[in-house]
Amino acid sequence: MPEPRPDIRPEPRLQIKNLSRFYEGRAVVNDVSLTVQPGQVTCLLGPSGCGKSTTLRLIAGVDHQDQGEVYVDGQLICDGASTVPPEARSIGLMFQDFALFPHLNVAQNVGFGVSGSKADKRQRVLALLKRMGLMHHAKDYPHQLSGGEQQRVALARSLAPRPKIMLMDEPFSGLDNRLRDGIRDETLEVLKEEGAAVLLVTHEPEEAMRMADEIALMRDGQIIQQGAPYNVYNAPADKQAAAFFSDINVITGTVHGALTDTAFGQFLAPGVPDGTKVDIVIRPQHIKIDFDRHGRGPNPTPQDGTPARGVVERARFMGNESLVEFRMDFDGSVMKATIPSVFLPKAGTALWLMIRRDRCFVFNHSKTRPA
Ligand SMILES: Nc1ncnc2c1ncn2[C@@H]1O[C@H](COP(=O)(O)OP(=O)(O)OP(=O)(O)O)[C@@H](O)[C@H]1O
Ligand SMILES: [Mg+2]
Q1: 325: which strand partners?
Q2: What residue owns the CA closest to ligand 1's atom 30?
Q3: Is residue 50 in contact with ligand 1, taking CB distance under 6 Å?
Q4: Residue 32 CA: which ligand is closest?
Q5: Does the 247-364 domain belong in CATH 2.40.50.140?
Q6: Domains in the chain: boundaries
Q7: How do beta strands 277-282 and 249-256 pair?
Q8: Was domain 14-241 assigned CATH 2.60.40.1120?
Q9: Tell me, what's the pLDDT at 371?
Q10: Is the pLDDT of residue 236 over 60?
Q11: Domains 14-241 and 247-364 share a fold
Q12: Which residue's CA is minimally distant from atom 2 of ligand 1?
């Protein structure tokens, strides 16, 4: 048998091409394209109202796009004109507003869409109830369950028919923190084992980073960046993309000779024309802190630049780390830094801040101060 050629990617299980949806003349989904391979999880991540659920509804076939196509295993299932009905798409759905069948017990709810022999069906249902921690509720009816338990039944029910593609809209949001991690891991394991392509909507970056093979970051109906969580976090497309994953600090400067002068020393801005205003963006965890030595900080270094002094305005203990807000001497602005929680400086303490050059991002200046 010939070796598979490494340059040929397997057919994507799910492919959407240039999908757009207009409501009242406004593009709520605007030219969205993505692919998901079998056994892969892509997270659609973005703020409220950016078009995540609408994208999922178009793929599921419960809403219809104005432009673009959806393919499953290379087969066109809908374009602007024709469409395969939702029930014929081999797509599993787990939406936030799931509804269980009230007249069926938990085991019957989970087994509802499963085909095959009675024994196969029973085995499948039992296996899923076990993985979801629902064995002792098998004979209960939905009204006898808590909200989180109902959500787990709905998850098990959506997994049961072994869908080729699973679309999930904030599927774990109703579960308490203690349960959530376990249920999340079990659910993904089942889906990966069975080679499903998963498109999962969330507005929580931590959830996306934990679960996704790939993150598609959405804003105003468009995908503005797509890639592995590591890349999206460490090489954000712009200031807002950086701000979506953590608090950020922004220092504004003007470029002269491919360099920007700031109170923290010079920053490289290669290829940026003279006179361009730039934003230097730094996450709080990439600020280094040093003690005050009679009004002086550590010596400047090529990696960390020049230190700038700030006075602690507020310090909050967060468990793993402390979040410290500084009022900076050079312009009175506030900068945030996270530091190991063994250290919780008192308000009024003067400290010196440094910015790691390998961890900051330089973007053309934009007015939008992210929320
Ligand atoms: N049927 C509709 N008619 C008109 N506008 C709609 C309709 N459905 C959604 N919208 C609008 O489309 C935009 C995107 O909605 P969508 O539900 O896709 O957002 P979302 O990203 O899922 O947000 P959230 O995180 O809050 O669930 C919103 O501004 C919403 O008001
Ligand atoms: Mg939504």
Answers
A1: 314, 336
A2: 49
A3: yes
A4: 1
A5: yes
A6: 14-241, 247-364
A7: antiparallel
A8: no
A9: 42
A10: yes
A11: no
A12: 23
